Amino acid sequence: MRYERLVVEFAGGTPGYRAQYVKEVVRPGSGAPLALVGQAHLELVLSSATAHDGNGASTLVTSAAGQDSSAGLSYAVAGDFEGMVHIGVGLGRVTEFRVLRLTAPDRLAIDFRV
User: For labelling, which of 74, 85, 93, 95 has a CA lying 20 to 30 Å from the CA of 57?
Assistant: First the structure.
């Protein structure tokens, strides 16, 4: 099996998460749709997490958005609202995925079967 991997790195432990395919990823708070490349959309919601500091500056180690055109995968942070960080992933099609918790450093790896 071959997988395309998206890795999200954290400082101070890995938060809880929920990952599922959705019709459309929307920005929390505003409800505006998040533009993603691809026909399939996966929403990753991190609980008890923040992507900004007290001054509103980003605390992300992983870039807030990116695209791998060779694999047909794109992602973007949809929002950071009330302790929940929403990340949208665009894919060419719905496919199997798995989420792995990794340590040293703390991160989530989301593998999409290609």
Answer: 74
Contact 25, 43 (CB under 8 A): yes
Whether 2 maps to a domain, the answer reads: no
- Tokens found for residue 88: 């949208």
d(CA 111, CA 43): 14
pTM of structure? 0.86
CA–CA dist 86, 69 (Å, integer): 22
- Helix H, strand E, coil C: the string for 18-37 is EEEEECCCECCCCCCECCCC
pLDDT digits (tens, 9 = 90+) for 28-37: 988 999 999 8
Query: How are beta strands 84-91 and 73-81 bridged, if at all?
Result: antiparallel
In a domain, 84, yes or no: yes
Question: pLDDT tens-digit profile of 71-99?
Answer: 678 999 998 888 888 999 999 999 999 99
- The domain in which residue 82 lies consists of 16-95
